[in-house]
Design goal:
The chain is of the alpha+beta class and about 120 residues long. It contains two helices and five strands, in the order H-E-E-E-H-E-E. The longest helix has 17 residues.
């Protein structure tokens, strides 16, 4: 009986994983995301899968993949805040001047503004 309960719970949790297709968000600019079904998995595989899908999408258009921004969920991974990655990217012609070496800079978790 307990095995059936655990199996049912595992199936339920597996169904909660979320993967977007490539979604256009502007001219030559797209977004793809991945989210784990639980907080027990790491974000490395999610990130690799998202980058792979984005790159393959650009290659299918005979274009070059260029990262614009990445955003990852931050721990603790509990209560629905599971590992998640979102990648914003461009698909550019191979000789486009906007193709540069990626400079992935982590966005701050909070911003402090001082008003005078």
């Amino acid at each position: 009986m307990m095995k059936l309960i655990y199996f049912s719970l595992a199936i339920l949790l597996a169904g909660c994983a979320s993967n977007s297709d490539v979604v256009p968000i502007g001219k030559d600019t797209f977004m793809v995301s991945r989210q784990a079904a639980t907080g027990f998995s790491g974000s490395g595989t999610l990130k690799a899968d998202a980058f792979k899908e984005a790159n393959e999408y650009c290659l299918s258009q005979k274009k070059t993949f260029q990262v614009v921004n990445t955003n990852e969920a931050q721990p603790p991974f509990v209560f629905g805040n599971f590992p998640k990655i979102e990648i914003q990217f461009m698909c550019l012609d191979p000789n486009d001047s906007e193709i540069t070496r990626p400079k992935l800079i982590k966005e701050p978790n909070s911003v402090i503004q001082i008003h005078k």
